Amino acid sequence: MSERPEGLSIGQVARRTGLSVHTLRFYEREGILLTAPARRAGRQRVYGEDDVAWLRLCVVLRASGMPVPEIRRYTELARAGQGTEGARLALLRDHEARVTGRIAELTRCLDLIRHKVAVYEDLTATATGAPGHGCGGAPGAVAADPRGAGPAGGTGGPGTE
To answer: Which of 70, 100, 154, 160 has the smallest CB count inside 10 Å?
Structure first.
């Protein structure tokens, strides 16, 4: 790896990955880098393109909610190489299931928010005499409570307005 000392500085890697220098040092201490960075004279860290690619994967895993200890475990398995593919697959499948569940939960939240937006668009259009959204609430719905609590203090979810 003679080309590594001419590689990327910690600042360059920070800019390319969107991570702070502090986070890069933290990831190094936590064992999340596949290999420890080489050092220049003066002990400055030197990174390569492989490090940037790995860190970008870690950024995605972290942004999708994978805890640091799980990322560390995934890193350890990747470092160990052949023979760990099944364990890596299982770890990623578990995370995929959690992300899919979170997406479903957020989709339900978004559906409710969109419903509330339509209700308030109709309310404000009616109050101003402008043409409404055309939703008027769900079929068979109870009149909207402009305070946002829904009828009788309900959740205000679809079908309750």
So the answer is: 100
How far is residue 92 from each of residues 31, 77, 96, measured CA to CA in Å? 18, 12, 6
Report if pTM > 0.90.
no
Tell me, rounded to whole angstroms, the distance of Cα 63 from its chain centroid. Answer: 3
Contacts of 37 (CB under 8 A, 6+ apart): 10, 28, 45, 46, 47, 51
Within 8 A by CB and 6+ apart from 46, the residues are 4, 5, 6, 7, 8, 9, 37, 38, 39, 40
Position 70: which residue type?
A: E
55-97: pLDDT as tens digits: 999 999 999 999 999 999 999 999 999 999 999 999 999 999 9
From first CA to last CA, the distance across the chain in angstroms is: 65
Reported as a single tens digit per residue, the pLDDT across 4-31 is 457 999 999 999 999 999 999 999 999 9
Q: Which of 139, 140, 135, 142 is nearest to 115 (CA)?
A: 135
In angstroms and rounded to an integer, the radius of gyration of the C-alpha atoms of the chain is 25
